[in-house]
């Protein structure tokens, strides 16, 4: 999900005198005029909070999966693959392109995009593998809200992967495909896939087996954690979507 693409003509090279390769290899610079000091601290704090909540949610899910030992059964393998794929790696893929993200803050733009792509592809492959493991093990699929939201997440994950190629090569394909168009659709597909996976996870937490293991109160706390970090992760992509959409409409 390419949530923070930067155009050469709008950042640091308004006259277009710097080549694409030179621009993407620059070290990122955060403007001193970009919002108030309090806003920067708030955004950084939200980012830290998202990482903490992701770690807690993924960690508890893995503890539940391995509680009965190994080898893992089909359901537990499904949980491990999907949670690591969707909630861990895809979350980090989104956050890698967001401002004030700790581990990627000082990466060059080209390296941020590489990190985003690697995390997104690996996360998507693991998540889809986890979904297909469950689909093949059951005779009836997608008959619950958990499964139905998972199906939507699967479809949009595949669409986001393919669309990511056109977004990655947006500069090279600019003569035949508007760069912002491929990026906008990539953002939309990614947001839908990620949000649907989070909703599906919440319905998974609400199942009796997990509730009995973790207690209802702790289950509802994890659901709240999932909703909170999901919202934090998609804030920047949503703003980027509106910014690029308005830019396209004005042209």
TrEMBL record:
Where, by residue number, does the polypeptide cross the bilayer? 48-70, 76-97, 118-137, 149-171, 183-206, 218-242
Q: What is this protein called?
A: ascorbate ferrireductase (transmembrane)
Which residues belong to the signal peptide in this entry?
none
Which organism is this protein's natural source? Danaus chrysippus
| UniProt xrefs under SMART domains | B561
- GO (cellular component) term, any one: membrane
PANTHER family xref list: ASCORBATE FERRIREDUCTASE (TRANSMEMBRANE), OS05G0565100 PROTEIN
| PROSITE patterns for the chain | CYTOCHROME_B561 (PS50939)
Q: Where found? A: Membrane
């Amino acid at each position: 999900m390419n949530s923070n693409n930067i155009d050469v003509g709008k950042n640091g090279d308004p006259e277009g005198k710097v080549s694409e390769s030179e621009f993407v290899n620059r070290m990122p610079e955060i403007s001193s005029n970009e919002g108030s000091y309090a806003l920067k601290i708030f955004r950084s704090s939200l980012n830290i909070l998202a990482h903490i909540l992701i770690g807690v949610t993924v960690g508890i899910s893995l503890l539940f999966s391995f509680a009965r030992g190994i080898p893992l059964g089909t359901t537990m393998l499904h949980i491990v693959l999907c949670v690591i794929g969707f909630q861990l790696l895809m979350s980090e893929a989104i956050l890698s392109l967001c401002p004030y993200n700790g581990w990627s803050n000082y990466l060059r733009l080209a390296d941020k995009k590489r990190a985003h792509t690697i995390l997104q592809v690996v996360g998507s492959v693991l998540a889809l593998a986890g979904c297909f493991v469950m689909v093949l093990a059951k005779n009836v699929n997608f008959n619950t809200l958990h499964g139905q939201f998972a199906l939507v997440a699967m479809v949009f994950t595949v669409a986001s992967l393919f669309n990511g190629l056109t977004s990655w090569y947006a500069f090279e394909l600019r003569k035949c495909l508007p760069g912002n168009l491929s990026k906008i659709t990539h953002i939309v597909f990614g947001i839908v896939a990620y949000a649907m996976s989070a909703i599906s996870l919440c319905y998974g937490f609400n199942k009796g087996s997990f509730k009995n293991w973790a207690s209802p109160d702790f289950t509802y706390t994890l659901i709240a954690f999932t909703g909170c970090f999901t919202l934090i992760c998609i804030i920047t992509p949503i703003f980027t979507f509106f910014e690029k959409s308005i830019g396209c409409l004005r042209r």
